[in-house]
Amino acid sequence: FGQVRLFVASVLLFHGAALWDAAWGPGVDRHYGRTKKGPVNFVPTGSVLLDQIVAWRQSRRPDPTKVMYVITDFRGYSAYFPGGQVDLDTAYYRLQQDVIRLLGQFGHRYSVVLKIPPGFNGTDLYRSPLLRWVERGRYRLTMNTRPLGEGLHDVGLFIIDCPSTTLIQCAATRASIIVYSGAPHHSVMPAAEGLLAKRAICCRTREAFLHAIERTLVEGVQPSPLEVNDEFLAEYGTYLKDGKSAERMAEQLSAVYGHA
């Protein structure tokens, strides 16, 4: 199987034959700009949601005893690769089991939250086994199906096994982060990983990911600093880090449609 390279975070604007991609950060253009075809223009604007999360940093104090394990959907046959990626789904399911078993050993020291994507417990058969397995095991954790943005700021440690948009949201907080950056189903672009490593613990292998989780929980999650490294966030999320993503988006909309 191939790999899906992240991060892509943007809004598409159409006008006539032209297309503008209002990207969250310049990293999108740096990666895709050289390969783009047709009248596509990448314009970094930042993200209004991420601006809001960053603005809340000073008034929200993360709890070092609260750990959130953020998972994503299984892909099944609706995958990016020919024939689906069922084999990768099986590996991902087993990884989730290993992480939950490990977190279960620390239920007496930490408040553990399993962050489930909206719709994860749907009717599709390939989505339900994990939740049934967790319920049978009676692990000491809370399941959360609310949007991630509603419960970010009191978390002391995020554990992320799939580097998707949720990772950028977590990076906008002050919390510690452990991320499986070498996951076979999604991997982080080399340039992005170099910046991310300044903000989070990046793990290229399954073994390193589990070891980093265990070591961090044994040693204790450190209190979050007031200032964190935002180079990764600026490149893929907030752009200029000035809280003015909405203004830039409005300017771009005006430029594209103002004279239509």
Describe the structure in your own words.
The chain has 260 residues and is of the alpha/beta class. It is built from nine helices and eleven strands. It has helices at residues 27-32, 48-55, 86-104, 129-137, 165-171, 190-196, 206-219, 231-238, 245-257, and strands at residues 4-6, 10-15, 18-23, 40-44, 63-70, 111-115, 142-144, 155-160, 176-180, 186-188, 201-203. Strands 7-6-5-8-9-11 form a six-stranded parallel beta sheet, with helices on both faces. The longest helix is centred in the middle third of the chain and has 19 residues, at 86-104. It is globular.
Topology at a glance:
Layout: E1 4-6, E2 10-15, E3 18-23, H1 27-32, E4 40-44, H2 48-55, E5 63-70, H3 86-104, E6 111-115, H4 129-137, E7 142-144, E8 155-160, H5 165-171, E9 176-180, E10 186-188, H6 190-196, E11 201-203, H7 206-219, H8 231-238, H9 245-257
Parallel strand pairs: 1-10, 3-4, 5-6, 5-8, 6-7, 8-9, 9-11
Antiparallel strand pairs: 2-3
Helix pairs in contact: 3-7, 6-8
Order of helices and strands: EEEHEHEHEHEEHEEHEHHH
Mean pLDDT: 82
Helical segment count: 9
* Alpha carbon gap, first and last residue: 44 Å
Q: How many β-strand stretches?
A: 11
**Structural class by helix and strand composition:** alpha/beta
Which segments are poorly predicted (pLDDT under 50) over 5 or more consecutive residues? 1-17
Proportion of strand residues: 15-25%
